[in-house]
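Morning run. Coffee first, then this:
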Amino acid sequence: MAFIEGLRRRYGDEVQIAYVGTRRGLEARVLDQGAGVQFFTIQARGLERHLTGRAAVALGQNGLGLAQTLHILKRFRPQLIFGTGGYGCFAPLFWGSLLRIPTVIHEQNVLPGLVNRLMAPRVDCVLLSYPDTARYVRAKRWVVTGVPLRPSILEARTQLDPQGAKRLFHLDPVRPLVLVMGGSHGARALHEPLLPGIARLQREGIQLVLLAGGDATRLRAQLSKEGVIVLEHTPEIGVLLKAADLVISRAGGATLAELTALGKPAIVVPWPGAVGGHQEKNARWLAERGACLLLLEDQLQQKELVDEILRLLRDPSQLFAMAQASARLGRIDALDHVIREVEPYLHHGTSSRVLSFHRHRRGWHERLGLGAPRARPSHKRLGS
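And here it is:
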């Protein structure tokens, strides 16, 4: 969504954008609400690592998804395919690399996912969020850009102070605020250790906002008299982050990019179910640089989360040091950097930026610049 917003701000209606995803994903709800994007659905499912009945079903669904994607590409005729990982990206990236449509991958995590590792040698360019990721991918060309953030996040960073941000949510501008972010599905493992200690936090004058996703309904019923703000989702995440004195969160790539862009100290609890333990890799990368306190889920059973919160809030020097380290790691220009990397593909071809299979060879290499990958002529790509 950050990439889409960035393109819209730069090009307006000159650029046509399509999103290929599944009906099960979050994108089905977000994009159907109107984002100026054509939304195409395909069949796609993560592959099982063992030969089972479910693996056979997944294989069949992905085969159907390949056929559906080819039909979509013929209909939409893209100039650029931009993949962000996940099983839903495989079919567009596969056809893009096969047909020599310029194809770019963006990897948000330190440890790349299976699809990105598989497709990295076949695409034109891989954009990385962390320099350490380069050791895990074999790419023709890779660039460290960081994770692109929505403009609203960066606006909160520059246009608000923490006190003003608290007032926008009707919070006390003087009292400390702890923001708990469990991701789009919520995280009971973060919420449950807090519940017994909420009264203790309030006695210490600490305000609490839970961004709880799917767990919001249960928490609202349980905390209706506690004076805790419980939200399912909010478009004002930038404002909340700016307001927070301490953040408790999972370790997804986008979440950590938001924390570092706003220079926020955090207690990070990686989701242990993340494929390949990539959230723990992300969190350790930040923790080793002093930007967060890393706690694994099993450590939450041994340590009192409320004790850790109070310890940090009572130590302004440590909070400040964490905030400074976090801010040093933030890549606030990531969106501009990503757009700069893909612009040569968008500028190539016809005068409009309607995406197309058929592109003139003339000027292709010069427009991409020295050392950039060169596409094959369309008559060779399409077999004509």
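Confidence is low (pLDDT under 50) at residues 349-384. Good start to the day.
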